[in-house]
Amino acid sequence: MFIIHSTAISLNGDGILIKGPSGSGKTDLALRLIESGGKLISDDQVIIKRKAKRLFLSSPKELNGLMQLSGIGIVKVDYVQNIPLELVVKLQPYKNLDPFPINKEEIIKDLSIPTLSLYSFAVSATAKIKVALDVQKNKVKLIE
Questions:
Q1: Are the C-beta atoms of 34 and 26 separated by less than 8 Å?
Q2: Which of 29, 47, 117, 120 is buried most deeply by CB count within 10 Å?
Q3: Domain CATH code at residue 19
């Protein structure tokens, strides 16, 4: 078990770990995912636990259901725990994005996790996350 500075959302039971430096839009993207049907796992700090060949996401107890929204403050929202990690989203400036990434992954605790690099504030960011999850489940075919 370890804690990482990031935000995590569950979308249809799939854990999404959103990584990026302070101010990159982790919570903003998480809020948009919640508005489109997701549930908060944790904002700002995420507990990652390995169980066999899977990683699971939870929040530290003191942060359960809390989100810090710029311009509003700290709010309490519904949250879920122990959700399997399916996708890592790395937030980057738009100019640094690769338009044709192929088989991007991140190794966490010796496990390979599919990775998507995004510009957090793009209108299409939440849709791209949903498509990336569908690609993983073979619901959408990726042309390479």
A1: no
A2: 29
A3: 3.40.50.300
| Residue 144 domain flag | no
Number of compact structural domains in the chain: 1
pTM of the model: 0.93
Amino acid in the structure at residue 5: H
Round the CA-based radius of gyration of the chain to a whole number and report it. Answer: 14
d(CA 6, CA 56) in angstroms, rounded, equals 14
Domain extent for 131: 2-136
Q: What are the DSSP calls for the chain, one per residue?
A: -EEEESEEEEETTEEEEEE--TTSSHHHHHHHHHHTT-EEEESSEEEEEEETTEEEEE--GGGTTEEEETTTEEEE--B--SEEEEEEEEE--GGG--SS--S-EEEETTEEEEEEEE-TT-TTHHHHHHHHHHHHTTSSPPP-
* Residue 131 placed within a domain: yes
Angle ∠(123,130,31) on CA atoms, nearest 5: 55
Tens-place pLDDT, residues 23-48: 899 999 999 999 999 999 999 999 99
